[in-house]
Design a protein that fits this description.
The protein has 385 residues and is an alpha/beta fold. It is built from 15 helices and 15 strands. Helix 7 crosses helix 13. It starts with a strand and ends in a 7-residue tail after the last helix.
């Protein structure tokens, strides 16, 4: 018997959000019926995607060829469209009983629906939203989001987030916060993608950085700059975003284009196979904003589950995890692009000289997987105070 239908809201392309996919799978296994609502980035993309539950992708634009991708019009269109979807769901016969908001930009419509329709509400903050890179140097936008956050938080009493440092920051606002780390499901090892199909060299070391959105200061360009210091080693970048888009031209400018392989983001099952084909994973966020400084990137765990050692930037949470668990090397920080690239290369060489034992990596992975957190995630379904 169903425990009820849950409207799950996400502001990005729901086809690529792995945390949301895992949350919906957990809800479904527990007896709920998730209805996943996100957006499509391209007009010609299908309205729904192939999942064992109902999905709907919104087009945020006034014209089929003109979609809002960012900025005030994007966020305004998102709030309106999500609210319309929730109102429509409320009128269905066997309706929704709860709404699950992923990140601050979907929380407003969720709060409105909770108040108007009496639904339970859950809030999953995937990042420290008001300290994100996109708000750096934009005090007016940051002020707006902090005001928005304060208004929304007045209607909820608890939330979940991705690591203890962010949880502690939000707990100071009077919320009860639980941690559900963004770790992979415990799956059978992926069959490595043949390197010939990827254009990667056979018999040479391949470093891998992956990310659905490689924003400024996420380390993709730092990884490229490290390549002159690592002769004979190749770098693969899989994802999207500003640094991803600039990586190929930078590689050409510094003479390493033949050793840098840039791929568009890809479905999760394909990405797992590509990860398994690499040798070392890279997680190189710079500490330019608190959202990066206190993050624990999910790619660290994707690499761990694929049996890859990692090179991680020297951040309070991510760096401590790598050091305490012996899963790779932490690259020292630097004052400029040149020193950062040199320290990344030194850390890569240290991993090559003394790689972590594969059995040890497997043991660490066995303690960090999605199933460990499912109970905490299910406790997030509650009624606001």
């Amino acid at each position: 018997m169903s425990l009820g239908r849950i409207a799950v809201l996400v502001s990005n392309d729901l086809a690529f959000d792995q945390r949301v996919r895992k949350a919906c799978a957990t809800l479904q296994r527990a007896g709920y019926e998730p209805i996943l609502i996100g957006r499509r980035m391209v007009w010609t993309d299908p309205v729904s995607i192939d999942r064992p539950y109902r999905t709907h992708r919104l087009w945020l634009g006034v014209h089929r060829r003109l979609g809002f991708k960012r900025g005030p019009l994007f966020y305004l269109a998102l709030q309106i469209q999500l609210w319309r979807e929730l109102k429509s769901l409320s009128s269905e016969g066997d309706g929704v009983t709860a709404v699950w908001a992923n990140d601050l930009d979907t929380l407003g419509p969720a709060v409105w629906a909770s108040r108007r329709f009496g639904w339970s509400i859950a809030y999953d903050s995937h990042e420290w939203f008001t300290e994100a890179e996109g708000l750096k140097g934009r005090p007016l936008r940051k002020w707006f989001w902090k005001i928005w956050e304060r208004r929304c938080f007045a209607r909820i009493d608890r939330m979940i987030t991705v690591n203890a440092s962010i949880a502690e920051a939000y707990a100071q606002k009077g919320l009860k916060v639980e941690v559900v780390s963004n770790v992979p499901e415990r799956l059978a090892p992926a069959d490595p993608m043949p390197r010939e199909e990827l254009g990667w060299p056979v018999g040479q070391t391949v470093l891998l950085m992956q990310g659905a959105f490689m924003d400024r200061d996420r380390g993709a360009l730092d990884a490229v700059r490290s390549m002159p210091h690592l002769p004979g080693i190749h770098l693969a970048l899989i994802g999207a975003g500003p640094e991803h888009a600039e990586a190929a031209s930078l590689a050409t400018n510094i003479g390493v284009a033949d050793r840098v392989h840039v791929h568009e983001r890809m479905p999760y099952d394909t990405l797992r196979r590509c990860t398994a084909a690499a040798d070392i994973g890279l997680s190189l966020d710079r500490p330019t904003v608190d959202n990066f400084r206190f993050s624990l990137p999910n790619k660290l765990f994707d690499f761990l589950h694929a049996g890859l050692p990692v090179v991680c930037s020297d951040l309070p949470v991510a760096g401590r995890f790598v050091n305490e668990n012996g899963t790779g090397e932490v690259a020292l920080g630097g004052e400029d692009d040149v020193s950062i690239a040199r320290h990344i290369a030194d850390a890569v060489q240290a991993v090559l000289d003394a790689p972590p034992d594969t059995d040890h990596l497997a043991d660490v992975a066995s303690r960090h997987h999605w199933g460990v957190h499912e109970e905490a995630l299910l406790r997030a379904i509650h009624r606001p105070s």
